[in-house]
Amino acid sequence: MADTYVVLEHQAGDGYRWKYRQYHVDGTPRGIVVFVHGIQSHAGWYEYSCTQLAQAGYQVYFLDRRGSGLNAEARGDAPSFRRLLDDIAEFLTVLPRTAPRGHALGRLPVFVAGISWGGKLAVALERRHPGLVDGLVLLCPGFFAKVRPPLWQRISILFARLFRPRKKYPIPLNDPDLFTASPRWQQYLRDDPLRLHQATTRLLVESVRLDGYLRFTPKYVHVPVLLLLAGEDRVIRNERTREYVDRFATPDKEIIEYPGAHHTLEFEPEPSGFIGDLRGWLDRRAELPAV
Q: Which of 7, 106, 182, 212 has the fewest CB within 10 Å, making it most exposed?
């Protein structure tokens, strides 16, 4: 599907240059969707859904987090969770949002879609950089993980953070069965050279600090939210996720759960179901005045 997108580069405020994919939109764009991936994944996992949304008239951007995917520099590392939020905000700030003449909103609405661990960044963005987006899509967001490093390793990571911040530890999600029940996609994950298997101590500690930041974030979320959950998710805790999203300040929340589905909805036998739901939600939001 490489002919459906181009790989471009964005320079962050601290000088880091990270890559992203921009998908070719069919016709006049109706809105903008910016995707943020999980702790291990990258834009390459989600080519099908991004292509479908672009064909539906959305300008789609998929950001590879610094140190992940196509970004080889400082592999598996990040200075802080706030720097990761600033990366997204800086990108959103320079996005062209000019709408065609006669568009209902006068400008193109922008939606941020956070997948798994990226869902934490998408929501935290509303607290650190409010007013940049018109809606959030959360796909199996990683607020409450079922899978964690063993206690001894968590203690080791904490001590290593003080003296060896770039020492790497395995990300405890290396079993492809956690993401999908599809043999085809399990093999894809085993063979994926861009999948992130290790992270530095400071990135792992920053993930925990981000969890603390998110505890006080629901009152800052005032934009419409779509939450998509997998019924057989082995990575996140669905009930606690529902309860957390229910605390968001916005009254405009929609939750859809797919019975039998696993964590990465893209890898389901029929991903068109969740893509259709996502497209329908975007279509309705793109026609309403922005928040």
A: 212
Strand order in the sheet with 253-258: 5-11, 17-23, 58-63, 31-36, 110-115, 135-139, 225-230, 253-258
The count of residues in the chain is: 291
Residue 184, C-beta contacts closer than 8 angstroms, at least 6 positions apart? none
238-290 pLDDT, tens per residue? 999 999 999 999 999 999 999 999 999 999 999 999 999 999 999 998 875 54
Q: Any idea what DSSP says for residue 145? A: B
Residues 6 or more apart from 101 whose CB is under 8 A from it?
none
The H or E element containing residue 163 is helix 151-163
Query: What are the CB-based long-range contacts (under 8 Å, 24+) for 144-150?
Result: 144/236, 144/237, 144/240, 144/241, 144/244, 145/235, 145/236, 145/237, 146/233, 146/234, 146/235, 146/236, 146/237, 147/172, 147/173, 147/178, 147/234, 147/235, 148/172, 149/204
DSSP 190: H
Tokens representing 95 are 């996005």
pLDDT of residue 1: 53
Q: What is the mean pLDDT of the chain?
A: 93
Structure tokens at 291: 């928040």
